[in-house]
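Sanity check record (used in CI):
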Amino acid sequence: MRLHQCLLLLFALLSPLVQGAILAIDYGAEFTKLSLVKPGTPFDVLLDRDAKRKISSVVGWKKNDRVFGAEGKMSPLIAATEVPDLPIYPNPPLLTDDGSLIFKHANVPDHIKPAPSADAAWTPVDLLAHQIAAPAASRRPRGGRGREGTSERVTPKSKHFINTTHVEALAVGYEHVGAVNLDIATRDLIQDAFVKKTSRPDVKDDARAMARLSKEAVRVKQILSANQEAQASVESLFDDLDFRGMISREQLEDKMAKKLPEFTAPIKNALKDAGLTIDDITSVLFFGGNARVPMVQTAVRDYLGGKDDKVAQSVNGDEAAVLGAAFYGASISRQFKMKSIEIDEHSSYDYSLAGDVVFPKGTVQGERKTLLLKPEDKLDLVFEQSGTPILEVNIPDISAALANFTAPEPVVNLTLRLDKRGFFSVAQAALTSNQTDVPEKAKGVLGGLFGKKDKTETSADADAETEGAENKTEAEKAAEKPKKAPRVILKYTSKPLFKTMSKDEKRITKERLASIGVYEAALRAREEARNRLEAYLYRVQNYLSDEPDSKALFDFGTDEERERLSSGVASAFEWLHEYAESAPAGDLVSRLTELEALEAPIALRYTEWMARPTAVDKFQQAMHAGRAFLLSATENRTEALKAAESATDENPVAPPKYTEEELLKVANMLKEYEQWIDPLMTEQVKLNGDMKADPVIFSKDLDDKGKTLQIYVQALEKRKDPRVPRPKKKAPPKEDTKLKAEEREEQPEVVVEETEQKVFEEPVREEQEIKHDEL
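Expected output for Hypoxia up-regulated 1:
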């Protein structure tokens, strides 16, 4: 019993782990994609509410409702951009003194608490939190694609499959160029064509016109990826002037001719850092927003020597990143049992202190290094990442630690860490001694390298040392053990030199998101209650009409009940028409509950009328099976008891299969159910099929009692037949035992020598062999 309780407790503790899930997010400049790894869910990209595998990376407000994706583009707070001269319509951001962007919103919803001020409506972190919260807001995760940059990663030629798949990323190349640059180039072509046609160069100063041109440029770019020409069309672009014109792929390629080398620069830089050449590359994978642009594909193929076989065509570039992130996250999680994958990445930057490189570029991420610094009263250190200060470390009160430090040559031991994610940090600071003592054993080894004494002298010294070692005390042996170097842990503070969110900013952001979540949850509950009420009203209205889809209300309901239900439906329709947009969820639910209570008696008669015949048949079958079992089980027990009366210890028989208490319980259940069903069945028959009368017997009671009897009887029938006990061996009489012992004592002892025994035995074996031959 105790073991059973322990197992239940163990399963209860493990259940939260089993129900865990991993969400992978590919947040792109244009689209966002998500993938979920969850028990019982297929491993794939998640769909949004419109059954699309991607969602636009846009968040906006439609009155008081937060909207995402295509709907959010109608009134965006922020849109994808990386070029300063690309305006954001309708609310361009403000640049503060500390370099932060503030996105103002004219009418902040009232339910957001604490309410942001007019000058600090939203920050990019707030907007990113909104966008990631989109799946939870719509109760369906979403996905998308897009890149703000182009990068290439060089991997080894082969993977080592032992027990774990090892992948090593040798180098990374990056260039600040992406699909947005193609959008801007296409927009400029359309703008130039409009200016040439209308002679209105001031169109570039109109934010609304430029926003519409940018939207049309994205569409034209996508068409040019598959066609040589595309028609651009914008109605009422500027001062009620329409524009229609043709843009060719050749024009776009000429516009981007100077930037084409930048698309292949990541490959060149990655190969250079990895110490490889183009001949070492076996495959190039394309993924990202600009992967399908013909000019980019052509530039990469030309750089690879014009070999098409080096460009992999079997990878879905849109979903490779998010699916890979989900798979890798599941492989390193303890909640899922998947094939293990270990990825060793190299740092793309070098980390230095005062010009001295600590972690050079190309260092395998996950390493640690130690710096030995001269102790001072305090140390102020600034670490740089490729020349940019990123971390300031302060170690105060070193003099106080030196006052209690007695070891010679004290130094400050600073442990630095570059973790698997590429984050640089300080792991520990301690005060240690820089003096290293050479053990006697090591000195002997070093001395042996420069000469030996005579063999006789060495042998004599060894004997003396052996004799002296035996006479050493335990205290002397303990004194010879090497002493542990003293170490004093120092307190330090580290401060990132790039702007991060403060505690107050984090708290305010969380409170705002929580208030929005509460508001949206209440809004969804109200909409759901309204939809349920409307659906119920239309369904009942149809049943009460002259040509209903079902005549259940007329067959099973009285005239008075139908009148009350019809009046309630009419009143609810009138109330809903007036208060549908403002009524809280509680009022909608209460209205629905009142109408369901009026319909409940009619619905009960209908369901019981349909389910009662089947329930009665099953109950009677269970009773019949129970009686048959009781009869056969009683006979079995009677025969077993009669056989047991004539059984002996040498010839036992099997005990009865069922106990008297078990058979008595079956008999009592049969008797109880018969007494229960007989009067109720008599009353039900008297109704004579009146469908408008309330039922006397309910199908649920029949099912419950029938299942209870059936389960108990089936458990007894499945029981295995008892085994026949082993017969007991009869012990010999005590007098015979004593007699045999006395006979053995009276027999004379015969002693035969070994040689005589062998001679005596040999003829016997020969005679036996002869008999075997005859056989």
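The chain has five domains: 18-145, 165-315, 351-438+486-496, 504-726, 734-774. If this sentence no longer matches the regenerated tokens, the check is flagged for review.
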